[in-house]
Amino acid sequence: MEYLSEREQIIKACLWLEEKGLVLGTWGNVSVRLNERELLLTPSRVVYKLTRPEDLVIIDYEGNVISGDRKPTSEMQVHRLIYIKRPDVNAVVHCHPVYASAMCATGEGIPPILEELCQLIGGGVPTTRRYVDAGQHLELAEETVAVLGDKNAVLMRNHGPVCCGRDLDEALVACQVVEKAAVCHMAIRGAFSEHVIPAELVQSERNRFLYDYAAKP
């Protein structure tokens, strides 16, 4: 089967998201960039533990189904536009963790209160400016991508976060970082003052993560 390794990686990621409580039911979706023409993503309304490699769908960057008998996830347009706008992104995860979803309902973003946010996300997590009906798929995608900018995460108003990465592992860690930041932010607000990391240090941490961290000494 074509792209079997990538298909298995996505299914494993979906099961991991479920195990970590970052998704509920079939609300959530995962994709990876295959090449400059195609991406592979989860199907719509298929329970993760029952998902097989052949259930995943390949689409092109115009949104046409290239391979697969299933209907692609309803957030297909969000994934598609992120890959078009962000050549540095090779994996996208849309999840529904409890605290980050709660922040989506506030209409506020998550400020850059943690080092991991600066390094992995590129600063605080912005939120879309308005709620877009989930049935308005292209409009939702355009709003999401516009607010995402060069960050690696965005909160979709009254919906859930979308996280990105240079590979799928990084996108999954981004999901954890966003949820941790949401928990911390909600625990602090109303009781203590938050010390937000200054913008110049946010950029410094991001650059250090991108260019100075290395697997080799």
Please describe what this structure looks like.
It is a single chain. This protein is α+β, with helices and mostly antiparallel strands and 217 residues long. It has a single domain, classed as L-fuculose-1-phosphate Aldolase (3-Layer(aba) Sandwich), CATH 3.40.225.10. The protein contains 7 helices and 7 strands, in the order αββββαβαααββαα. It has a 7-stranded antiparallel β-sheet, sandwiched between helices. Helix 3 crosses helix 6, helix 4 packs antiparallel against helix 6 and helix 4 packs across helix 7. The longest helix has 21 residues. The protein is globular and about 50 Å long. The N and C termini lie far apart (38 Å). The model has no long low-confidence stretch (mean pLDDT 94).
Provide a compact summary of the structure.
The protein has about 220 residues and is α+β, with helices and mostly antiparallel strands. The protein has helices at about 5-20, 75-85, 100-105, 115-120, 135-150, 170-190, 200-210; strands at about 30-35, 40, 55-60, 65, 90-95, 155, 160-165. A seven-stranded antiparallel sheet has the order 4-3-2-1-5-7-6, with helices on both faces.
Given helix and strand content, the structural type is alpha+beta
**Rg:** 17 Å
CATH superfamily: Class II aldolase/adducin N-terminal domain
Binned strand content = 5-15%
Query: What is the count of β-strands?
Result: 7
Key words describing this protein structure:
217 residues, L-fuculose-1-phosphate Aldolase, seven-stranded antiparallel sheet, 7 helices, 7 strands, 41% helix
